[in-house]
Amino acid sequence: MAFTPLNALNAFLAVARRKSFAAAATELAISPSALSQSVRQLEERLGVALLSRTTRSVALTEAGRRLFEQAGPGVEQALEALKSASAQADEVTGRVRLTVPAIAVPFVITPVLPRFVASYPKVEVEVQVENLRRDIVAEGFDAGVRLEEFIERDMVQVRLTQPSRFVVAGAPAYLKRRGAPEARRTCWRTSASATARRPRGRSTPGSSSAARRAGGSPCRAASPPTTSA
After folding, report:
1. Please, are residues 1 and 30 in contact by the beta-carbon 8 Å criterion?
2. Domain 5-86, what architecture?
């Protein structure tokens, strides 16, 4: 990878965004060693360390954080402008960042994403899968998949699945001794209990006499409200 300030800057921004040389190298379609050399040359040119590297992690130094915050948006805008310039008038281009809990991947992402990418090949889709309640707006996501009760009131939302059903089951001897719970929150106070999430309309054979069912929330797609000047 030939050294130029802009190439090196883009390489650094990819590492800073991904927090990984391997992931950034995959994004840029270059080898990790070439990427590392480019970032190192940029650091030598600037005379400061931009990244703190260990065998397990990559973190921004103070100088790296300032460069990432100040240069990142401008470079992203320039790259998007280049993509838009090469696109046809009616072609959809751009980048979409999604935050998704792991449980939603097989039900929402896996059935839809391949078809979307095939239909819109010039749209870059980044899906961040983790079981954390990310702030969609503050962390720069375009949308996220959430259970209904976890969506902020000012977010635009679209239902993606039907409501689920939670089934709480226990051995008859245990429930005779402890009593059957009348509400979901009661289950967590027992000394031995388990919950299972099953598709709507299916029952657990042999457990009807020892089960209490409660409604579960559907998955919804949430995105920030749009504003106009």
Report:
1. yes
2. Orthogonal Bundle (1.10)
140, 97 contact by CB (below 8 A)? yes
- Predicted TM-score of the model (pTM): 0.44
Residue 66 clears pLDDT 70, i.e. is over it: yes
- Per CATH, 5-86 and 92-229 having the same topology is answered no
DSSP annotation string for 67-80? HHHHHHHHHHHHHH
Q: Can you give the pLDDT at residue 194? A: 42
Residues whose CB falls within 8 Å of the CB of residue 121, separated by 6 or more in sequence, listed in order: none
Rg of the chain's alpha carbons, rounded to an integer?
24
Return the closest-CA partner of residue 175 out of 191, 164, 163, 153: 191
What are the structural domain ranges in the chain?
A: 5-86, 92-229
What average pLDDT does range 93-115 have in this prediction?
Answer: 88
